[in-house]
């Protein structure tokens, strides 16, 4: 993870070495030749100036990788029970049982199984959050739980969720909810889903279907097992050593503590005291709290944490990268702000040219 040479960066960005060297001069970096190694944040800054999507520069090549928990998002039609299901699942978490309920709202929670395995649930159901995160390049979700009410069946937002998951290449596990209701007809739901092209397991495909009731809290074990099985199939792994690559899933302003962001680490370990750039914001991590609100000094992959110490409020989907100094953090943040502003103006401009001509 030592960064890359100017020559390698030229390849990544499709820019000439002289262009990159010019940018380096502009940002006040010294270099001798194209074989000079740039730190990852300088490489990112330079790449950003060329307009390249910089997230791809962060690679896990060569690092030792370990299994990590799956990160799951719940989606489905309004009123089909997303919030109820998340609440029920949250109550199955060991932490919730031990502490008599999770008091802290983090935007994510972890359910730990007796086997020692765990699942991380994003606590913000809905397509808007999912799309916003994806639009920002944040591939946080590994699996989508598609909630369909057994009495209501497939509805417009069910289909929308299916197409979001498909576009993101995220596998679906179906939870047919409200199976306690007299009007529940899970078989009908399955037929509907199949006719929409979902290849259900019991029909020879690989999409698991679980019947649950969020209200009666039945079938939750089966859902958790199905998610673990799905995660196993995906063989999810992450590097634990080295600088963290993380995403914001939620952010809020606390009067006393300032900007707070719930983050999920994708790779590496986030450590208290580190300088970070978060989207276009920056800061130094002053405190890390786990989902119980307890202070901790680090965050490992798939562990939701709340971080404190940012200078501004980031947005859901923003990436978090670790840089080596406050100066670098400021510089990268300023570079990103400039780039975001440029992108914003370009979008407005495009909107203008795409708008239909006013009719006479
Ligand atoms: P969301 O819009 O998808 O988040 O749906 P909610 O969780 O808010 O649930 C909508 C309504 O369905 C609420 O009145 C819930 O109490 C009810 N509901 C959710 N899950 C179940 C269930 O398993 N059984 C029954 N009978 N009602 C449910
Ligand atoms: Mg809801």
TrEMBL record:
Location(s) in or outside the cell: Mitochondrion
Boundaries of every Tr-type G domain copy: 67-237
Similarity field: Belongs to the TRAFAC class translation factor GTPase superfamily. Classic translation factor GTPase family. IF-2 subfamily.
Function per UniProt: One of the essential components for the initiation of protein synthesis. Protects formylmethionyl-tRNA from spontaneous hydrolysis and promotes its binding to the 30S ribosomal subunits. Also involved in the hydrolysis of GTP during the formation of the 70S ribosomal complex.
Protein name: Translation initiation factor IF-2, mitochondrial
Biological source species: Vitis vinifera (Grape)
First and last residues shown, out of full length: 138 to 497 of 725
